[in-house]
Structure formats: structure tokens, C-alpha cells
Amino acid sequence: MRTPVTLLAVAAVSVALAACEPTGPKGVDSELLAQTVRKAVGDPNTCVLIVEKTSARVVFRYGDYTTCATARPSCDGPGTLTTDDLAKLAAAGDARTLSCDAPGEAGDRIGWASGPITPTPGAAYGDLAFAANMQGPSVLPGREIRVRLESAFRKAGM
Hints:
By secondary structure, this protein is α+β, with helices and mostly antiparallel strands.
């Protein structure tokens, strides 16, 4: 008797979580955006967030919640940063392109990139910013992450 109740509970939670997933910037095909981001910087240890500048509300997420919320060295001094934290800073105008060695992880590097997204003429999505983080043995430098993402955004019609 408990099995149907358990399945119903799991299904309800799954539907609720799917409803929380950002749908993408207005007027942009989010599947195409995900594909271009995946081709540009795709990796299991990558997080890319696109946020509205006015509210810092996430409108697009590439990467899972755990990857985006993992605290990693900030590469610009002591302390750590998450991609979620960097997205809030990017919404407020912060722009970064940093990279450094990952302490304690033999051969791993960390790359950070953030900044405004330059809208194409007639864009319907408003003022947006992005934040990205990668960690692993073949991580791109922060400035290369930025260049590749800017190209991916344009290819997706942003």
C-alpha cells in the first residue's frame, strides 16, 4: 500500500522541482542556448548562470544545482565563491575573468568569468548578465570562458 503513495510523493516533488527550473531569457530558445553553451564550455564541472541585472533572478542555468552552489577558491585573494554568488555580483555590474590552480586537487584548475551580456538589436529579454565557473584538469582560462560564452550567446540569438 505504501508503494503507490511513495511513487506519488516522488512524482510530486519531481514536478515541483521542474517548475522551479528557469525557462530561459524571453524570446530565446532555451534548448538552443543550452546546446551552444554545452559546445562552448560544456563539462560536468561547469556552471553557467544568466541573470536579470535588475533583480539577479536566474533566467537560465547550465549545470546542476550542486555544481553552481559549490564553493571554490575565488582566484583573486583568500576566500571562496560560488557561481550563484558571482551571478549576484554580475547583476550588480561586476565583470571577472580569472583562473588559478585548485588547492589540494592535483592538476585541477579553476576558471571564473562574468559580465554583462550585450543584447542584439531588438532583443526582447532585457538587461542580462552571466556568471560561469569551471573546475578540472583541462579548464579554460577565465578570459577564454568569457570569449566562448559570448560567442555561444550570439549563436543562440542573444
